[in-house]
Each structure stands twice: as structure tokens, then as C-alpha cells.
Write a structure and sequence with these properties.
The chain has 180 residues and is an alpha+beta fold. Helix content is 27%, strand content 36%. The protein has a single domain, classed as ApbE-like domains (T-fold). The chain has four helices and twelve strands. This is FAD:protein FMN transferase.
């Protein structure tokens, strides 16, 4: 089988950034550009309100909202293992590969959501932090000062760990208020 390379770890974010650039060139001041789980806000809504964007709950097959974030001149990307995977017996095999192990990602991280000035950066960081796992990923995010939300699988249920804009109690409660 020939080697295949999938650039979705940055390509979709790059494409969203290009869409925003084209919109700006045509004088658009209010837009929300999106491609799958990557979004970028161009300004705010015409009403002046920020764009409300849902963070999906990572339970496979559920398609429920975990929380809502507000965007204005900001990009968001989420990477996770809950939408694209293969089941072999009782084992779920994620679509994202860990290049250090030459194997699919297999850790407690169900999803990582990153806010950044560009969608390509948010997309790349979300994928990298998913691959790195909870400990190393959180340390990387702290060193870089990233705005990141980790949703983790625990034996007793789900855990949420956030940094930056996701790390304040106000943001956690705003997310929790919408998580039903």
C-alpha cells in the first residue's frame, strides 16, 4: 500500500484563514468562516454581539453540546477521537496517529479545543495537544500560554481541564451553564 499523507492537522485551519482573507478583501466585516471543527470569526455579528460557538461533547454518537464559547476576531479548533475512529472488537482505534509511536493516539484525551489568532495555529495546536496526551499536552499549552480546553475520559466519567480563557472560573461556569 502506498504511503498516504493527510494534512488535516493544519490544512483545514489554513483553508479557513484563507476564506477570512478573501472575505476581508471583499469588504466583509462580519462573518463566521468554518470548515468541519475549525472556525474563525471575522469581527463580531452585525448586531455587535460576539459569535456563539458550541463545543461538542466528546461522547461518541451523542452529538450534544458540552458548552458555548464566544468569538470575536478569534479562531477556534477542536481535535478529538470521538467522530472518526474504527472499532475492532471492543477496541476503538482513533484516526489521529502518534508519530512517535507510529500508532493511533491512545490516551485519556477525548477532545482538545484551542483558541488562537489564526485558525491554522488553533488547528495545529489542537492536533498536537491531542497527540501529546493530558500530561505533556497541558505542560506544552502552559509553556506557550495557550487558551485550551481538554475534555478527558476518566473511569468515573468526564473531566474538564482548561487554561487561559478556558481556565478562569467565569469561563468554566459559562461552559457548564450550556452543557446540558
Amino acid at each position: 500500500m502506498p504511503l498516504q499523507l493527510d494534512l488535516c492537522g493544519i490544512a483545514k485551519g489554513y483553508a479557513v484563514d484563507r476564506m477570512v482573507n478573501v472575505l476581508r478583501q471583499h469588504g466583509v466585516r462580519h462573518a463566521l468562516a468554518a470548515l468541519d471543527g475549525e472556525l474563525r470569526a471575522l469581527g463580531d455579528q452585525a448586531s455587535g454581539a460576539p459569535w456563539a460557538v458550541a463545543v461538542e461533547h466528546p461522547e461518541a454518537g451523542r452529538r450534544a453540546v458540552h458548552g458555548v464559547i464566544e468569538l470575536e476576531e478569534l479562531a477556534v479548533a477542536t481535535s478529538g477521537d470521538y467522530r472518526r475512529y474504527l472499532e475492532v472488537g471492543d477496541t476503538r482505534i482513533a484516526h489521529t496517529m502518534n508519530p512517535r509511536r507510529c500508532a493511533p493516539v491512545n490516551n485519556a484525551v477525548a477532545s482538545v479545543t484551542v483558541l488562537a489568532p489564526s485558525c491554522m495555529l488553533a488547528d495545529a495546536w489542537a492536533t498536537a495537544l491531542l497527540v501529546a496526551g493530558p500530561g505533556e499536552g497541558m505542560a506544552m499549552a502552559q509553556r506557550r500560554g495557550l487558551d485550551v480546553l481538554f475534555l478527558l475520559r476518566r473511569p468515573t466519567g468526564w473531566a474538564e481541564v482548561g487554561l487561559g480563557r478556558f481556565g478562569t472560573s467565569a469561563d468554566r461556569s459559562r461552559l457548564a451553564d450550556h452543557a446540558r
